[in-house]
């Protein structure tokens, strides 16, 4: 298997990943990150093995304890006999996983466990940020037999909303004394959170944060059968409250399956991914035309008044050759 | 001609505009601003009559005297027997021409002159800002017999660079005592300015601003035959120095025609316009597909693992029907 690290033999890599080879999984995610030309082939190879794993989004401001919580969740899922995949996405990191590696030390708990696959990803360079590469990487993990797949991301602006777009179940982590409840309301996380985790619940102000969130949830009207976000307290650093978080996750999954919401979320996620891929392909082809002679030739005609700009644009679009 | 204001009869409107009817010109620019479906027809009708007028871009920070300078330039061009068009673009204005109207009072000098057409435009709502609607509006003015066409815009960020993209000759206005020389260097206007106008040259610090700009220009290496930006002093409010500005504009036009730069700039401008139109058309068609059932149906297939996202994206693109 020494050739795995550079292999672009998609069927062989997918087979090896499904058999549990972590190097094959790593190689496939690298192909996804690089936007390799084999991606359509990879997507086709993975499709039959995907679509059922629970994708758990986990987000929150820096310092609320996301990595520690993820680590403890992984431990709990492993105890339940599940194979777990973790994608740690840092949209602000200029290096792949760079800013996260420090926090990842604790993840070494699972470094020798073949039932856990952890990967840091940067969203840098991907048009559409999270929306383009992360769903495909999550699909690689699912294809490799991981269920659940945990996608952890720093809660900064757009990433929070994007994570809800790609997750079945979205956890928003808060910590007391950071004005988080108000921040949460502002950022619109009230709409995206299925489960709120008040971490560091042994600290001053934890009760106030808990009450604030409960109060804000109570304000929203809900139709019968609609999910009412859970609020759970934890001290992840001491592994306290993690069982409650897992219970809430399981309850949410049951609700998703009972209602038609699981199908709805997955279709919405697929739609976003398809659209991002289509737009990316259009941009790439447009760029080829721009650097090629086609646009230059049309522009020369327009500049001389022999062709109008609209007719030239139509001619350019006809060159995109999308069929 | 009472029907002109609502007419969408493009050949009749173009004919009336070419005959000098200001209402027909106004109507055509409104059609451009609205992104009306007759635009391809309009572009085709104008193409034979365009491609030779000098487009003068005039930009600078708020308060440097752009409107006053434009007003005096118009007066000078009129004295030389030229028909003049002015587009005042304010990218930040939420209303068409709203923020500019106050400054426009002086323009009333030319309100009854049939040889001058002045129009305020907002770039709001146009994808690509200046780049989408302004070139088409400039073409309407040129088609109506205006030469030169002056495009005046507030020098805020992107607009400055965009104006250089659509102008044959770019004027950057500065005023003393605003730290403008350093600002100019920062904003990259050194690269876009063909002519610097140090307006309000009777104020303290005007000499320092003049020397700063001259110094910065001197730093750049130039190949033989390359244009060296002129630096001109004016007091537009007293109509002083305007002749020097006009001389610099004429010299630049001569240089443009002598060198191959005029053709290069016009082709670059046409290329940007064609590309903006093509991208706009793609976005519009993509939006139709998104709101239609096509994407939803594909997404459902992907969510169920019956189709992969790449294949779905290819199917979506095939629906764009660009040919």
Give a structural overview.
- With 323 residues, chain A is of the alpha/beta class.
- Chain A has 3 domains: 1-49; 52-258, Rossmann fold (3-Layer(aba) Sandwich); 272-318.
- Helix content of chain A is 50%, strand content 12%.
- Chain A contains 13 helices and 7 strands.
- Chain A has helices at residues 10-18, 22-33, 39-46, 66-79, 130-143, 158-166, 180-187, 189-192, 206-219, 242-258, 261-291, 293-303, 309-318; strands spanning 55-60, 84-90, 116-122, 149-154, 169-174, 195-198, 230-233.
- Chain A has a 7-stranded parallel sheet, with helices on both faces.
- The first copy, chain A, is globular.
- The model of chain A is unreliable at 92-106 and 125-129 (pLDDT under 50).
- At the A-B interface, helix 3, helix 11, helix 12 and helix 13 of A face helix 3, helix 12, helix 13 and helix 14 of B.
- Chains A, B: InterPro entries: GTPase/Isobutyryl-CoA_mutase, GTPase_ArgK, P-loop_NTPase.
- Chains A, B: GO terms for molecular function: GTP binding; GTPase activity.
- Chains A, B: It holds the Pfam family MeaB.
Task: List the defining traits of the structure above.
homodimer, alpha/beta, Rossmann fold, 3 domains, seven-stranded parallel beta sheet, hydrolase (chains A, B), nucleotide-binding (chains A, B), chaperone (chains A, B)
